[in-house]
Amino acid sequence: MKNLNDLLLLGDPRLYEVCEPVKEEELPLVKDWVADLDNVMKEIRAKYNFGRAIAAPQLGIMKRLIYMNIDKPVVFINPEFSYLSDEMFVVWDDCMSFPNLLVKVKRHQNAVIKYLDEHWQPKEMELSNDLAELLQHEYDHLNGVLCTMRAIDDKSFKWRP
């Protein structure tokens, strides 16, 4: 089982790689990957008091997989945005791969994401505000993009209080 020591930190070259899609024959592996993601997210929550979702590449699993657990666990396999609103908003973003740093970014206010669930069934979720921001952040991880690369300007960084 992976733990906090397995979390890739800012500067690790794997965080900048584009992930491969999960193949249907890899579905039996997803359960173990999700267990690892859940475990590390719980450890982040205990240590830093934040964490609602995590992307597989943050644990060196270079697959298009996102795990979110707010009210209940949701597994996003091969997610794709089918809609991103023109309306944007500004937020101080955080990331488990650099837990003490906040980055001011612009995100789409509303989004629709299509994905496969852990049973390989197609799903769609409408997102707004903080959930839209969260999934855009995690989706960026699948494409090797960190929120540091989306900073509004060179003054858009601060330490977590």
Short structural summary:
The protein has helices spanning 27-48, 129-142, and strands at residues 53-55, 65-69, 73-84, 88-94, 101-108, 110-116, 122-128, 157-159.
Q: How many structural domains can be distinguished in the coordinates?
A: 1
- The CATH superfamily title: Peptide deformylase
Mean pLDDT: 97
Approximate strand percentage: 25-35%
User: Rg to the nearest angstrom?
Assistant: 15 Å
Tally of separate helices: 2
Please report the total strand number as a whole number: 8
Q: Enumerate the spans where pLDDT stays under 50 for 5 or more consecutive residues.
A: none
Question: What helical percentage do the residues reach?
Answer: 10-25%
Shape call = globular
What is the fold named in CATH at topology level?
Peptide Deformylase
User: Which architecture name does CATH use?
Assistant: Alpha-Beta Complex
Helices and strands, in order, run as HEEEEEEEHE
3D structure, described in words:
The chain has one domain: Alpha-Beta Complex (Peptide Deformylase). It is globular. The model has no long low-confidence stretch (mean pLDDT 97). By secondary structure, it is of the alpha+beta class. The chain has helices spanning 27-48, 129-142, and strands at 53-55, 65-69, 73-84, 88-94, 101-108, 110-116, 122-128, 157-159. A hairpin with a 3-residue loop joins β2 and β3 (73-84). The chain has a five-stranded antiparallel sheet. The protein has a three-stranded antiparallel sheet with strand order 4-5-8.
